[in-house]
Amino acid sequence: xxxxxxxxxxxxxxxxxxxxxxxxxxxxxxxxxxxxxxxxxxxxxxxxxxxxxxxxxxxxxxxxxxxxxxxxxxxxxxxxxxxxxxxxxxxxxxxxxxxxxxxxxxxxxxxxxxxxxxxxxxxxxxxxxxxxxxxxxxxxxxxxxxxxxxxxxxxxxxxxxxxxxxxxxxxxxxxxxxxxxxxxxxxxxxxxxxxxxxxxxxxxxxxxxxxxxxxxxxxxxxxxxxxxxxxxxxxxxxxxxxxxxxxxxxx
Length: 251
Fold this sequence. Notes:
By secondary structure, this protein is mostly beta strands. Helix content is 10%, strand content 46%.
């Protein structure tokens, strides 16, 4: 299956256009800053939409854990959506467009091939509807460090996800009232973990714990203090998170 090659410490943006129920065409456009270095590589590994059936098409991209994928679908047909499927999945999705909307950004939980599946709802397909659409897909960021390691085999992942644990944790933005933010954690060797936090509003914050060192995106300010069994983490003097040690270490 055609795919975009692995991306590391660089960014690739693909713009895909097509018509549901017709043969789809593919155009790949590079961010201007990367045009020189990646142009030849992308020409060799041209992204493509693969025909699945009359009402669906699929884009496959290879990426690494810790990178960020963004997808945006522009369409005038309200029954035209996309899903994002993690490596190894043909059905369970990281994102479902029919309930989540036509735009998504998320941190990828595992290495491998991700599928962006564009489709018409079956009711629309039965009515022989068509949809002209443009799909914009980007992958950016770096993979997690080699010394992150792997979690023990006994630390099973939550079914249908790339996370060892999921749930809510206390958070606060600025001077707002404390709320609960959803999280997913990927654990490495003991003491190492990557916590993906999603406060209301669409922000995705990734905090990487390497022993006593806590980091996030390059250039952003992080202050982290362990108090008892909890980590108190502040990012850019605005985002406040309370992360139980059990999230990092399991148990």
